[in-house]
């Protein structure tokens, strides 16, 4: 019965208790037994459990007998809270009619709370305000309820109070879901329409699709058609997640479940595509949603050149379970063969790198993270630039554009001065301030993404003593006085260390890099110049002095001309050696420069 189905997700800022609340709801509905229960049951990835964060959204189907005596089918999706994984949240919202907006009763409304609430409103979901952790000694439920009313416009008296740790208020929460979240709009007698909102790769069964059936019924052994890839498959198995796979004979309108169809490659599935009936009447495709664009790029190179093929296989395997990251082969004169990888943010980049090192046992060198710039040439052609090596000749460049984001920072009132200084130093333009509560305010800035991606979050935590939170969303590309900063060692360009920087900051950045290099490159038999250049102009220089050998040590007394002759001979030898000698830059020099906060 479609009116007995409720599809909802839990959205919140990072660390506000989404996964723990999902545990309590599964316990209360009897979906998992006490023996099977463990903390954050849905976070089954090793990295998720270790870091205490959710990376992938997870779905679970539950049966709940309400106070009115009726049994309802509840489909819950637990979503990540970090800004880098907001794409996972966006996908999940498409499969729901309602959302639980969870707020910590001690910390209050945070930056990502507001961002997720806006996402839910755009998707036309019924948002239920829930205050978690009311059992904490530091909880301020009444003050936080007013904060939620001021920022998200949910009346304070309608906000439910619960504790996901102790289970207080879970019963009232489930009753509110049944009362407030509308049942799915759909008709089982119409032609089949299903939305693919996620997928993952299983080594033994191929691609497993997570879908929400909008109209019609899908049955076992039925042939389905996907218009996005124009392919058709036979349904071998389907069912619901409880949270383990539980096979069923059919999924009807309003239900959320999984489908196994012997699909070999993840490229054969488009997230947001529609499942249609191949043989019967075909309904129109659903609108779906846009794929995310990578915002941060970096190069990943194997420490040993022989591991290139292993790295390719590891990236292929990782791509199967994470469709939001991209990669393509690239070559560096200094680091050899590797891949240029695109990520949704800095945490996403760290997670991918850690998964490669841990799950695939790879030893990697990672170049400095960069963003995608755009260049407009004199013939008015606009192209994307992923690395400085792709820039055309300086004479052909009309202007360079950089990505600008809207940055929302939620800070205590006492730290506003420090945050203002930090943001303006990073070329941030102040827009407005929103008052959230008595002692907290939301500052809005427009800032270049390149100034945020490296260590802005760490600096923000320092300035606000750990209480500041941030969220950003892309606005547009804007023209900026950017220049390519080239690093030359002994006259040869080192492509792995070249970056695109703001003209005012180029000299400082260049000097910092070559000073770091000077400490790491060993001395040779000849002098090595280290230079930082913008186009053809040298803006900073350091020298690594040659190894000195006293060739006149054996001359004790005698004519001075003999000593002079030996010194001139040594000079000529060093000059000839410099012409043919190569400077080997050790691996640790790259790690020292690329890993520095400078």
Structure description:
By secondary structure, the protein is of the alpha+beta class. It folds into five domains: 2-180, 3-Layer(aba) Sandwich (Rossmann fold), CATH 3.40.50.300; 193-277, Elongation Factor Tu (Ef-tu), domain 3, CATH 2.40.30; 296-367, Alpha-Beta Plaits (2-Layer Sandwich), CATH 3.30.70.870; 374-479, Alpha-Beta Plaits (2-Layer Sandwich); 484-594, Elongation factor 4, C-terminal domain (Alpha-Beta Plaits), CATH 3.30.70.2570. Helices cover 26% and strands 34% of the residues. The protein is built from 13 helices and 32 strands. The protein has an eight-stranded antiparallel beta sheet with strand order 11-10-16-7-8-15-12-13, with no helix packed on it. α11 runs antiparallel to α13. The model has no long low-confidence stretch (mean pLDDT 78).
Q: What name does CATH use for the topology of the largest domain?
A: Rossmann fold
CATH hierarchy class name of the largest domain? Alpha Beta
Could you say which structural class the secondary elements and strand pairing correspond to?
A: alpha+beta
Number of continuous helical runs: 13
Determine the strand fraction and express it as a percent band: 25-35%
Main beta sheet: 8 strands, antiparallel
Oligomer: single chain
Strand order in the sheet with the most strands: 11-10-16-7-8-15-12-13
Termini gap: 61 Å
Question: How many individual domains?
Answer: 5
Helix share, percent: 25-40%
